[in-house]
Amino acid sequence: MRSTICLAALCACFVITSCKKSNGFTKNHLDFSTDSILFDTVFTTVGSTTEYFRIYNNNSQPILIDDIQLMGGSASPYRINVDGVSGVHFMDIEIPPGDSLFCFVEVTLDVNAGTLPLVVSDSIRFTTNGSDQFVHLDAWGQDAYFHANEVVSGTWANDKPHVLYGTVAVGYPGIDSGLTLTIPAGTDIYCHKDAILIVYKSSIDIDGSLDNEVTFQGDRLESFYDDVAGQWWGIRLIEAQQSTIDYANIKNASVALQVDSTLDPLTLTLSNSIIHNSAYFGLNINAGANVTAENCLVSDAGLCCAYLFAGGEYHFKHCDFVNYWSGGRGGPAFLLTNWWTNAGITYTRDVVTSDFTNCVVYGNIADEWEVDTLAAGFVDFSVQNCLLAREEAYDYPNYILSLWNQIPQFTDPQMQDFHFPSTSPLNGNAVLTSVTSDLEGIFRSGSPDIGCYELP
User: Fold this and answer.
1) What does the H/E/C string look like for the chain?
2) For tag attachment on the chain, is the N or C end more exposed, with fewer CB atoms within 10 Å?
3) Quick one: pLDDT at residue 386?
4) CATH code for position 243
5) Residues 126 and 37 in one domain
6) pTM
7) Could you tell me the CATH number of the domain that includes residue 107?
């Protein structure tokens, strides 16, 4: 009887062992969607976007990951999340046959003393069946000057970038503070989500130069954000004193440059600058502001590249307003009005002694040039030697030698290349003005070209 019981017990053990072996874990290794994650470039103290990779079990049996460890531990600037759980160390993670897990990675870097990028590395170790596999983590970090909800003035250094948070103001709201902010050539300015630079009853001088421009853009530097509009709000001048912007590159804002009313006869001189990819307006001039713009390219906006609203004084020469916005948009490339409504009452403000000379207004809809004015307000402007897109041309004496609905033959508007060949109607059809060189420094003489670019 005892022999029978022992034999039965042995048989039971054999069955259990056999079942376990048939459903056991594979002795093979893991596979990964990538063996390295690169964050390029991350500002110190500013978190990155989230990257991820997948961990695969490409075997016919389940696999048991004995250990997953962020090698830098809790002191690492990286943060990981495995299958929905955050931490730095995970044990006994099972993946069914043919299945996978996600691992998400973020990084925030500490301030460093240098002005050049540095690389910060770590890795994630996966231990399976006694073997180690690694996914490597690398981030290029950049130190910067940070401005968060503060009043600024003086001259900014350009040895490392400036990062803007919230409202950064030149001048105190409600006070005639008369401050001045100077931004020298080569300064890079990165703006956090919804950040705005306001100039209130003060002045700003952006002093870029050819091939050494001042740049404004969002603070997300991953390639995904290269052409995402609305990453930050923009630059706004409110009753500003006389200001200048020369050789600036302003992109991916909501309203890139807004000029509201004025205390000085001349509010802003804008020259040799590019404004690109604005969620709403590229250039918005409001309520009687006085703006001179020369050699500027304002391209792609969700509403208008230029909206000159409720009167003012404008002197534009050799400017391109070109709108090839890829989605639906709510306005023409260029719109000028002299009226507004408030509480059901319509008001007007004069458009005085304004002129638009040698400018291009074009895009991917039929009517890109719109003038919407009421006779109750005084309107005085001239348009000379411009190329304008509008199905029904304006036949008024203040339009002088302008070209209507002729194709400018831009090189590649989808890639923001608004140069043109010698066969373009822009070639040689401008009038000679005081603007003696183009946006790229090419000299203008004789019969120059319409727009911000000159054929060499």
Assistant:
1) CHHHHHHHHHHHHHHHHHHHHHCCCCCCCCEECCCEEEEEEEECCCCCCCEEEEEECCCCCCEEEEEEEECCHHHCCEEEEECCEEECEEEEEEECCCCEEEEEEEECCCCCCCCCCEEEEEEEEEEECCEEEEEEEEEEEECCEEEECCECCEECCCCCCEEEECEEEECCCCCCCCCEEEEECCCEEEECCCCEEEEECCEEEEECECCECEEEEECCCCHHHCCCCCCECEEEEECCCCEEEECEEEECECEEEEEECCCCCCCEEEECCEEEEECCEEEEEECCCEEEEECCEEEEECCEEEEEECCEEEEEECCEEEECCCCCCCCCCEEEECEEEECCEEEECCEEEEEEECCEEEECCCCCEEEECCCCCCEEEEEECCEECCCCCCCCCCEECCEECCCCCCCEHHHCECCCCCCCCCCCCCCCCCCCECCCCCECCCCCCCCCCCCC
2) N
3) 98
4) 2.160.20
5) yes
6) 0.82
7) 2.60.40.10
